Amino acid sequence: MQLLIEAGNTYVKVAQLFESGKFELLGRYPRRKLEMVLEPLLEKGIHRIVFASVGPVEVDNSIQRIAQLANIPVMQVKTLRKDFGVKNAYSEYQYLGVDRWLTLVAIRQKFKKPTVIIDIGTALTFDVLAEDGKHLGGWIAPGYQLMMQSVLENTCKVFSDREHGECITFSDNTADGLKNGCRAALIGLSNTV
């Protein structure tokens, strides 16, 4: 059995890949809890750890260290110039986030059709994949929480609350105005593609 890890900007997602090819998502955890989550999993007969990371190097180092202490081989997936039927559009291909690269590869393997990929996380990313597997490039923008956080941290009298409305309307209060404005910005950007 293999342990698959995707270390994102905010969360770490962990899954088990069984010999049969089936996998089980074990969960999504805050980055700071990585070691606490991984250590008990390594006692379940894991024979390899495969991970991809767009998080800080400390996360990569933690995974490497935990694997080494448990004497389990570890493989870090990296972005490539061309492989698996996908040609990376970036001239400095290594700077395309490995999360985006793996999504391009997965989409290509499954559909083999022109595709626009929109991924909403800490960042909002857009990538375009041609029918022949050529990555045509993409965009990166702040995700919803990051956009709201930016406004809240850089203004004096704007505030938010934890409630989320059902629809986007013109707001008659600051908290809803911020939430609806950020959601409208994300939708507007999505509609531009």
The fourth-level CATH homologous superfamily of the largest domain is ATPase, nucleotide binding domain
Query: Any idea how many domains?
Result: 3
SSE order in H/E notation? EEEHEHEEEHEEEHH
Provide the low-confidence segments as ranges: none
| Strand arrangement, major sheet | 3-2-1-4-5
The CATH topology name of the largest domain reads Nucleotidyltransferase, domain 5
CATH class of the largest domain: Alpha Beta
**Separation of the first and last Cα atoms:** 40 Å
Number of strands: 10
Q: How many separate helices?
A: 5
Overall radius of gyration: 19 Å
Q: What percentage of residues falls in helices of 4 or more residues?
A: 25-40%
Q: What do these coordinates show?
A:
One of its GO terms (cellular component) is cytoplasm. It catalyses: (R)-pantothenate + ATP = (R)-4'-phosphopantothenate + ADP + H(+). One of its GO terms (molecular function) is pantothenate kinase activity. Its cofactor is NH4(+); K(+). The structure is a single chain. This protein is α+β, with helices and mostly antiparallel strands and 193 residues long. The protein has three domains: 2-76, Nucleotidyltransferase, domain 5 (2-Layer Sandwich), CATH 3.30.420.40; 82-141, Nucleotidyltransferase, domain 5, CATH 3.30.420; 143-192, no CATH class. The chain is built from five helices and ten strands. It has a five-stranded mixed β-sheet, covered by helices on one side. A three-stranded antiparallel β-sheet has the order 8-9-10. α1 packs parallel to α2 (57-69) and α4 crosses α5. The relative contact order is 0.10.
